[in-house]
Amino acid sequence: MPALPYVLPFGVVILLLAVRPLLPLPPLAEQAVWTLTMTATLALVARPAMHFRIRNWGGSVLMGIVVFAIWIGPDLIFPGYHARWLFTNPVTGAIAATMPDSGRRDVAVLALRTLRAALFVPIAEELFWRGWLMRWIITAHFEQVPLGAWSARAFWIVAVLFAAEHGPRGDVGLAAGALYNWWMVRTRNLGDCILAHAVTNACLCGYVIAKQHWEYWL
User: Fold this and answer.
1) What are the helix and strand counts (H, E) for the chain?
2) Which residues pair with 93 in a beta bridge?
3) Is the Cα dihedral 92, 93, 95, 101 positive or negative?
4) In the chain, N or C: fewer CB atoms in 10 Å?
5) What is the pLDDT of residues 46-103, one digit of tens each?
6) Which residues contact 137 (CB under 8 A, 6 or more apart)?
7) 150-189 per-position pLDDT tens digit
8) What is the DSSP-derived secondary structure letter of residue 88?
9) Positive or negative CA dihedral for 192, 198, 200, 203?
C-alpha cells in the first residue's frame, strides 16, 4: 500500500491549522470546513489504511484516560506551569485560546469542535505517526514492516517529533507520544491506538468545556 493514505490526512490537518490565521472564518463555518474536509479526506484517500478492529477495549480506554491525566496534570498541580518561558518562547510558540467568545456559547460549534478533536485528529495522527512513520523509519518499504514492530530508534524519533508537534506542551507531548508508541508495540493494532488517542482527546474536550480552559484547544 502506498504511503498516501497514511500521510495525507495528517498533512490536511497541518494545512488547516496553518491557513486559519490567514483565512479567518466565523466559528461555525470553520468547524464545518474542518468536518467536510476531513470527512472527504478520510473517505476518499485514507480508507484503505484505516483499521478499526479493536483488540483491547479496556486497555485502550484506560491508556487514553492516563494520557489525559498526564496532559492536564502539570497545570493542575502547578498553576501556570506551561506559561513559563521554558515552554512558551519563540521556539515552541505560545499557549493561547483560539476559540472566539461567540463559539464558546454555540452548541453546534462545540459539538463539531469536539468531533474534530475526538475523531478526525486521532485517526489522522495515528495513521501518520504510528501507522506510517514508525515503520518508515525502520525501512522505506514500510508496508513490509508489521504494525508495532520494535525499533528503539523509530520509537524515540516518533516520540520526540510528536512532542515537537505540540509546541509549548512538548513535555507532556513527549510522554503521550511514548505511551501511544508503547501501546502500538504492545497491541500491534492501529485501532487500539486510535481508540486510546480518541479517549484522551474526548476527555480533554469535556474538560475544556466544563472548566472553560479554552487554551487546550489549538
Assistant:
1) 10, 0
2) 89
3) negative
4) N
5) 999 988 899 999 999 999 999 999 999 999 998 888 877 556 666 666 787 889 999 9
6) 151, 153, 154, 157, 158
7) 999 999 999 999 999 998 899 999 999 999 999 999 999 9
8) S
9) negative
pTM of the full structure: 0.95
Report the SS3 class of residue 55: coil
3-state helix, strand, coil in the chain (%, to 5): 75, 0, 25
Position of cell 484506560? 62
Q: How far apart are CA 117 and CA 216, in angstroms?
A: 11
C-alpha cell at 182: 508503547
Surface-to-core class of residue 16, CB atoms within 10 Å of its CB (0-12 exposed, 13-18 middle, 19+ buried):
middle
- For 192, list phi and psi in degrees, rounded to 5: -65, -35
C-alpha cell at 93: 510558540
Distance CA 9, CA 11 (A): 5
Q: Residue 89: beta bridge partners? A: 93
Distance CA 158, CA 161 (A): 5
